[in-house]
Amino acid sequence: MHSTETHSSPSPDPIFQMATGFWVSKTLMTSVELEVFSKLSGKSVTLDELQDILKIETRAAEAFVTALVSLGLVEKKRMGTPNGQKTTYSNSQLADTYLDKGKPSTYMGDFISMVDKQSYRRWDKLPQSIKTNKPVEDNEGGRASAGTMFAQAKSNQAIEQMRVFTKAMYGV
Question: For the purposes of burial, counting CB atoms within 10 Å of the CB of 99, is it exposed (0-12), middle (13-18) or buried (19 or more)?
C-alpha cells in the first residue's frame, strides 16, 4: 500500500545564505574601512551628499547604501517636501553605537579591520589547511598567523601587530 502523505523538501535558503555569507562580511568590512559610520555620525544625508562624503560614484553609492540598509546598519527615511519626496540616510542605532570611531569605548571597527586584514584571506585557504592538517600562514603584507605573532611578541618582535591586536580587542 502506498502512503498518501507527501513530504515537502526543505528550503534551500540556509544553503544559499551559507554560500553568500561573505557578501555580508565584506560589506561590513568595507564600510568600516571607508569609515562610513563615523562620517555619518549625527547626520541625515541624501544620496548625493553620501556620495560626496564617501567620494564614490552614484551607482556605487546606491548599491552600497542599499546593502547597508538591508543589513540594518543604515536607516532610510522618506519624507514629503514642498518639492516632492526626499530620501535621507543615517546611522542605525547599532552602527551608531558600535561602528562610529567617535565612540572609542564601544567602537568595534578595529576588530572588524583586524579580522578583515589578518583572518579573512586565511579562510580562503581552508581546504589546504584541512588537507595538510597545518595552519595557514598569510605571508602577504608580512602578516603572521596568531601563533607566530604571539611567539614573536614574547621576544619583542611584532610589536606593531600586537598593538593592532590589543586595540582591536578593546572594542570587543
Answer: buried
